[in-house]
Automatic annotation (TrEMBL):
Protein name per UniProt: Fucolectin tachylectin-4 pentraxin-1 domain-containing protein
Superkingdom of source: Eukaryota
Gene3D superfamilies with a match to the protein in the record: Galactose-binding domain-like
Keyword match Nucleus: no
GO biological process terms held by the UniProt record: regulation of cellular defense response; regulation of complement activation, lectin pathway
The family this protein is said to belong to: Belongs to the fucolectin family.
PANTHER family for the chain: F5_8 TYPE C DOMAIN-CONTAINING PROTEIN, FTP DOMAIN-CONTAINING PROTEIN
Taxonomic lineage from the root: Eukaryota, Metazoa, Chordata, Craniata, Vertebrata
Stored InterPro entries: BG_Antigen-Binding_Lectin, FTP1, Galactose-bd-like_sf
Entry keyword annotation includes Nucleus: no
Molecular-function GO terms, alphabetical: fucose binding; metal ion binding
Keywords: Calcium, Disulfide bond, Lectin, Metal-binding, Signal
Leader sequence segment: 1-19
SUPFAM superfamilies xrefs: Galactose-binding domain-like
């Protein structure tokens, strides 16, 4: 997967390659054959689409003490989906509140739709976007113990995300979030887990 810097470098390289291959009117160099022009144009379109989905990671959560809320800067990463995933086997993902902020100080997640990889009891995904920072387990989400558990909010539109805040559970197991990744992007491939990482 690519970091934000890696994605920017790839985009820059792509722009330079396009500048080298393109004619002033935006048509591709025909390389002495008419079919090549179409082929190069198809390559450009495919690469542009591919670059939009290069995974970026906002952050890796090292540790959030129980009952605390921590903010993570995402440097205006663009995307419709915000995903929290814990890589590894025999993991349980628990979130008490997830807030997503764009250019204004409005929590975009409040109008979103949340889902998660599995459900433990009544700890549904929407508990993390209800605007309630209660840290007792009844107000939090929780997956079953599984490999790579994830939680995702669909913001219902593409936004530039400045920051994401996570509120951790207080009454048990705050270490469960250690190593979790926050990813932002537009892809639902692998349930959004392939998004910015």
């Amino acid at each position: 997967m690519f970091t934000a810097l890696g994605k920017k470098l790839l985009r820059s390289l792509f722009v330079h390659v396009l500048g080298f291959l393109s004619l002033p009117e935006g048509r591709m160099v025909n390389m002495e054959c008419p079919a090549c022009e179409v082929s190069h144009l198809m390559f450009v379109v495919r690469v542009k689409r591919w670059l939009e989905y290069i995974p970026l990671r906002c952050t890796v959560i090292s540790h959030i003490p129980g009952g605390e809320t921590h903010y993570f800067q995402c440097n205006e990463m663009e995307g419709r989906y915000v995903v929290v995933v814990i890589p590894g086997s025999a993991k349980i993902l628990t979130l008490c509140e997830v807030e997503v902020y764009g250019s204004r100080s409005v929590n975009l997640a409040l109008k979103g739709v949340a889902v998660q990889s599995s459900l433990q009891g009544s700890y549904i995904a929407s508990h993390a976007i209800d605007g309630n920072r209660q840290t007792f387990h009844l107000h939090c989400t929780q997956t079953e113990e599984e490999t790579n558990p994830w939680w995702r909010v669909d913001l219902r539109n593409v936004y530039r995300v400045r920051s994401v805040s996570i509120t951790n559970r207080e009454d048990c197991c705050p270490e469960r979030l250690d190593g979790a990744e926050i990813r932002i992007g537009n892809s639902l491939e692998n349930n959004g887990v392939m998004n910015p990482r």
